[in-house]
Amino acid sequence: MSATRAMILVVARELRLSFRRPDQLLQPLVFFLIVTTLFPLGLNLQLSLLKDMAPGVLWTAALLSSLLSLESLFKGDADDGTLEQLVLSGHSLTVIVIAKTAAHWLLSGAALVLASPLVAIALGIPVAAFGTMFASLVLGTMTLSWLGSIGAALTVGLKRGNVLLSLIVLPLAMPMLIFGAGATDRAISGMSPAGALYFLGSLCLFTCTLAPFAASAALRITLE
Amino acid sequence: MWTWFYRLASPPFVYRTAGTLTPWFMAAAAVAIGYGTIAGLLFAPPDYQQGDAFRIIYVHAPSAWLSLFAYTTLAVAGAIGLIWRIKMGHAVSAATAPIGASFTLAALLTGSLWGRPMWGTYWAWDPRLTSELILLFLYVGVMSLRAAFDDPGRGDRAAALLGIVGVVNVPIIHYSVVWWNSLHQGATVAKIGKPAMPGSMLWPLLAMFLGFMCFYGAVLCMRLRGEVLNRERQSAWVREAIQS
After folding, report:
1. What mean pLDDT do residues B14-35 have?
2. Taking a C-beta distance cutoff of 8 angstroms, is the pair A93, A85 a contact?
3. Which residue in A155, A168, A207 has the most chain B C-beta atoms within 10 A of its own C-beta, making it the best mutation to test that interface?
4. B47: helix, coil or strand?
5. DSSP state of B51
């Protein structure tokens, strides 16, 4: 079986498993909505002021809700022994990590991007900035999935790994927050967001090429 | 030529060498920090803009430098442990993490104390302060990850990997924070550039750098000895070393 075929099978399996449990798919999205509701309530802002904070709020909520689903990236498979079988399958572990992370992004990041217009309208982000928001969220959540795969692989064997996972991944994710919110901010105020988007794109490519190797090395450490 | 490298992998050798080096580092640190403190606080002229408040640089800048230096040490020692499976690499990495975190904290505290008279606020979202804060989070992450594993060997390797990932990310984080600040047109912060310093200011600063490095070396050796003893507590030479 070729590596591509193995990847497709792993992705298909992940998608099938999570569509059988749609509540797990929806919970991070509901969390995303709830967190964005907290900010206007807590800050007691008028809509005009809210617009200035909107990119930051949107991005912070997106980061936090993607973190929620990260823990399950390897955990379920590690607990029932599937992960060991995948390691022993003869395929490169890196390939499997890539497939699992890509599936994870489809289920968390892409879903978040699809849900983002709801939040954006509620926060008063103009429709003209939606294109930039989509692009930045796609690139940013993808980068977060790659970075998160390292964190998830490092904490997979731990009992209380969830808080530790956030502690590890969030500092590494700060550049995405800066550029993602920056791009959206610029689009809202009518400036060109190209610079920030390029940065996000390069971060995404950078993590996509290196993170799978780090994550598979981490899995080998925690699983052995 | 590799024999010295292999000898570094031997715990008794590391334990003894660290013990021999500690007093030398301590003495050098005492001399350099003593000179730097006296010359910096008493003899260096006050800054024409900042007055006497600039003198906090003599603690702040070396702490900030060592916070980065210790993180690099952590990552390099961890990588040595991971690649060549040298346990002493992990011991150095584990010993250096709390020291580096303390220097990071010292740099943050002195920075905020310096910020109060200069910028009028204890905390400004200055790029350097912010990336220093993120560095502190990275330290905490590495230390917590090492502590979270029941099996120390696995914790060591996991922490080493995270250290390497962090060291790749530190420049990215730093430059993105700089970029973010320029985006928000750093309204409050008059960036403290590197003005050309007269020698009477510069020499004490260099002495402080040297002194802090030696102090770091001394503390690292002391912590490393404890770390080695703890890790090798089952072996015979530890029993001999403690009884003698």
Report:
1. 94
2. no
3. A168
4. strand
5. B
pLDDT at residue B71 in the model? 94
CB–CB of B161 and A221 under 8 A? yes
Alpha helices in A44-160 (DSSP H): 47-70, 72-79, 82-88, 93-107, 109-122, 130-154
Which residue in B139, B138, B40, B45 sits closest to B98, CA to CA?
B139
Question: Measured between alpha carbons, how far is residue B70 from residues B94, B102, B172, B177 in Å?
Answer: 11, 10, 18, 21
In a domain, B4, yes or no: no
Three-state secondary-structure class, residue B74: helix
User: pLDDT tens digits for B125-162?
Assistant: 777 788 889 999 999 999 999 999 988 889 999 999 99
| Cα A216 from Cα A220, distance rounded (Å) | 6
Q: How many domains is chain B partitioned into structurally?
A: 1
The amino acid sitting at B7 is R
pLDDT at B190 over 50: no
Q: Say whether pLDDT at B76 is over 90.
A: yes
Q: Residue B224: which domain range?
A: 18-191+201-243
**Which of B140, B169, B183 comes nearest A182 by C-beta?**
B183
* pLDDT tens digits, A7-28: 899 899 989 988 888 888 888 8
